[in-house]
Amino acid sequence: MKKIVFTLFLGLVSFTVKAQDVEVILTSGKWFIESIQEKGEQPEMASNKQDEWLLFTKDGKVEESHFGELETFSWNYDKLKKMIKISGSETIFHRIIEITNDKLIVEVVEDVKGSADDNVMITYIK
After folding, report:
1. 86, 101, 103: which is closest to 33 by C-alpha?
2. Which residues constitute the signal peptide according to the record (predicted)?
3. Residues contacting residue 32 through CB under 8 Å, at least 6 positions apart
4. Averaged over 97-103, what is the pLDDT?
5. What's the pTM value of the predicted model, to 2 decimals?
């Protein structure tokens, strides 16, 4: 009986996540950095979560704040690759590992064709 309930629960969770539009979730509010993890090391918690955030807008702009310094870039989402492309003075890709209404985990990818030797995982929360 436990297996059936667990299987039904997993199916419901998977269906709920698939049914939601990633772009709608991304643009639903500010994403504050909770932690950054490099090369499989222990996650380093953000020192001041209120100063480090992203805000995606529906018109393709993303505001980024690091320690009170605000920058604006453009962004788009590739549904097939499940990647967010952020463009400014340089282009950086964020591969979505997990996304819910209040949590976003991405892998920062500098070379989408090559291997990710220096992968950085960032966890955002609302």
Report:
1. 103
2. 1-19
3. 46, 49, 50, 52, 53, 124, 125, 126
4. 94
5. 0.76
Per mean pLDDT, which of 9-13, 54-58, 88-92, 112-116 is the most reliable?
54-58
User: What stretches of the chain adopt beta strand conformation (E)?
Assistant: 30-38, 44-45, 52-56, 61-66, 69-78, 83-87, 91-99, 103-109, 120-125
In sequence order, which residues have a C-beta less than 8 Å from that of residue 88 and are 6 or more positions away?
71, 72, 73, 74
Residue 121 domain-assigned?
A: yes
Domain count, the chain: 1
The answer to whether residue 10 is domain-embedded is no
Query: Could you tell me the residue range of the domain that residue 84 belongs to?
Result: 22-125
pLDDT tens-digit profile of 55-64?
Answer: 999 999 999 9
Q: What is the CATH number of the domain that holds 58?
A: 2.40.128.540
Assigned domain for 36 exists: yes
Q: How many CB atoms lie within 10 A of CB 84?
A: 23
